Amino acid sequence: MAKILAVDDSKVIRDLVVAVLLEKGHEVVTANDGVEGMSATRSEQFDMILSDINMPNMTGISMVSKIRRLPGYEYIPIIMLTTESSEFKKEKAKKIGATGWLQKPFDPDRLMKAVNKLVK
Predict the structure, then answer these.
(1) For 85, which of 30, 52, 96, 102 is 20 to 30 Å away at the CA?
(2) Which CATH homologous superfamily contains domain 3-118?
(3) Are 40 and 67 in contact (CB under 8 A)?
(4) What is the pTM for the complete model shown?
(5) Closest by alpha carbon to 64, among 1, 46, 113?
(6) Where are the domains of the chain?
């Protein structure tokens, strides 16, 4: 199964994502914000990243932009999991390298469909 990084400043969301992914056999590492997410990607290799956009210390947009420049992370799937719904934010996320977008509150089945589609 896949090794997935879940980055969100909300413990409730992180716990929900972890529960959904663990139930399907995935390994999950969590980070509280973009700074912790960057640290995790520098020390481990992940098959997929799920990230919020609005977080303290470093936004998801900034984190994704930096992650895409790391060796081994040029093409891994990154899904933005956020309350944001503006087309401007979606386009910005896509331009910096986000693969997909799920809006919170998210449906666990929809999350798993995205994971199954993007992680081989």
Answers:
(1) 30
(2) Response regulator (3.40.50.2300)
(3) no
(4) 0.94
(5) 46
(6) 3-118
